[in-house]
Amino acid sequence: MNNPSPLDFVRDNTTLATPPLLPEIQLHLATEVTPLWEATEETLAEKNLPPPYWAFAWPGGQAVARLMLDRPDLVAGKSVLDFAAGTGVVAVAAMMAGAARVQACDIDRFSLAAIALNAKANGVEVKAVSVDLVGRELPGIDVVLAGDVCYERPMAERVTAWLRTVAATGTLVLLGDPGRAYVPAHGLEKVATYTVPTSLELEDRTTRETTIWRLLAE
Amino acid sequence: MTSTAKPDPTDFTDIRRDGWIGRWAPAPFRPYLTLARLDRPIGTWLLLFPCWWSVALAAPRWPDLWMMALFAIGAVVMRGAGCTVNDILDRKFDAMVERTRSRPIPSGQVSVRQALAFLVFQLLLGLVVLLQFPPAAIGLGVLSLALVFTYPLMKRITWWPQAFLGLTFNWGALMGWAAVRGDLDWPAVVMYVTGIAWTLGYDTIYAHQDKEDDARIGVKSTALRLGDTSKIWIYGFYTLTYAGLGLSGRLAGLSGLYLMVLSLAGLHLAWQVATWRPDDQNDCLDKFKSNRWFGWLVLAAILAGKL
User: Fold this and answer.
1) Quick one: pLDDT at residue A65?
2) B4 in contact with A at a CB cutoff of 8 Å?
3) Does the beta-carbon distance from A33 to B7 stay under 8 Å?
4) How far apart are CA B239 and CA B24, in angstroms?
5) Residue A1: what pLDDT?
6) Cα distance from B89 to chain A (closest Cα, Å)?
């Protein structure tokens, strides 16, 4: 099997597991970074692929998903976008919380397959799209959710500048952040905080205090 | 609340922008100097001292300064080579971790090919240094490559990677002697085995940080789980270190003055363990780094033993 479909690839290289903060949800997750990454490069016969973020339940995303399950009123009946979705855990939680519809977007090719499988594993429907939405208008979206998007300066600056313009149109924008370096220093309103159990290997500590911020227009 | 406290910049990356490399080195060289960890010299000191001790021990009277300088250069380039190999092998993992994401390879400042070229350059420098030595030392140097290159792999496999680290980091105790005398003898062998106990001690202190921060000579911090008994273990390792160095010097015919000065080095080790606070990250790093002073004290003891 030299060239499996993305769905098969995700299934073959992950196991169904429950993220620590979300006993209600099951996700296709990997346990080790390097073998998975090498497998993606081998499958696509390409070097210098981006890291397989879609196979890990990052603390920012877990916290936003937890908030959805704890405060379904935030998204119930609404049209929701899970931005830079990765596993799609936030989209899954938003659907479980009663959102009218949820779109998940991520620029990673395997992420789409992971989102589809994770939605199915939890019996919900999520529309996954592989486009870079940054800079675009989001007509018809009531709520934008983003977990852990401020770990790199160029991406964090680009994304938060755009999301502020989205917030300016009256859309609710929530960011889940475990204390990453490039979270904006102002124009944020704290919504909730969770202590997310993490792996020492990926996060250097066994828990991360993770805050969900409402991003303000300015 | 409308703002968030910015984390201390040193919390999220192990690259120092305010270090001497960032301030003084020409921009094109910076990623390479960082790759070789030239801004974090403790790993080099720990590699170098067994060489210097052994050179001093083997010397007829005073150690040859040229020989000492050769080992210093060799320690810098070989430690740099080890770090480069490590960063090449770990590049994928490093890219996913906030602390290591801005290292030269995962951040794209240096390609894998460039890193390999830099590795070859360092190894060639090491070879030039090695070829200044007599055949026995050259043979030992070639043999050490097997350890240097398997260490980054062994740290993932072996149950007690610190022991393997000790085998690697103290090789200089054999090489120093061979470089001076052209052969191997018991004082050097005893010093080598002793050095492994020293490494087990300091690396256990190092492993108590949850960040694999400064020297990057250690292993994944969860590797060594001696738990609450760590202090007792380290007392044990350090006692062996003290006794072994004493034996090595006596076998080499050093005078009683050696043991007197060596007892200061022993006191330093006792101070390290007695005042060590395992739960304090900074203290772990400070105590680990203080082994540099232990290195100087032992060297002073050997020189005193020649008086």
Assistant:
1) 98
2) yes
3) no
4) 42
5) 45
6) 10
Chain B residues touching A203 at Cβ < 8 A: 97-98
Tokens linked to B89: 């092998």
Q: What mean pLDDT value characterizes chain B?
A: 86
What is the pLDDT, as a whole number, of residue B228? 64
Q: Is the pLDDT confidence value at B221 over 60?
A: no
Which run of H or of E encompasses A104? strand A101-105
Q: Which 3 state secondary structure label does DSSP give B6? A: coil
Q: Residue B199 is encoded by which pair of tokens?
A: 């490494």
CB-CB under 8 Å, B93 with A185: no
Is the separation of the CB atoms in A147 and A94 below 8 Å? no
Residue A31 has pLDDT above 50, yes or no: yes
Instruction: Quote the CA–CA distance of B39 and B216 in Å, as a whole number.
Output: 12
Q: What is the least distance, in Å, from the CA of B95 to any CA of chain A?
A: 7
Q: Domains in chain B, please, with CATH?
A: 20-304 (1.10.357.140)
Residue of B nearest to A216 (CA): B2
| Chain A residues with CB-CB distance to B216 below 8 A | none
Computed on alpha carbons and rounded to an integer, the radius of gyration of chain A in Å comes to 16
Cβ of B113 under 8 Å from any chain A Cβ? no
Amino acid, single-letter form, for residue B269: L
Q: Measure CB to CB from residue B2 to each of A38, A53, A189 and give the nearest one.
A: A189
The residue behind tokens 């149950």 is B159
Alpha helix segments (H runs only) across chain B: 9-12, 20-24, 30-35, 42-58, 65-89, 91-96, 112-130, 135-157, 161-169, 172-181, 186-207, 230-251, 256-275, 281-289, 291-304
Residue A212 pLDDT > 50: yes
Using the predicted structure, report yes or no on whether residue B217 has a pLDDT greater than 60: no
The model's pTM: 0.78
**Chain B 187-226, residues with CB within 8 Å of chain A CB atoms:** 210-211, 220-222
pLDDT given at position B5: 37
Nearest CA in chain A to B12: A181
Residue A195 CA: distances (Å) to CA of A61, A213, B264: 12, 15, 47
Domains of chain A plus CATH, in order, are 57-215 (3.40.50.150)
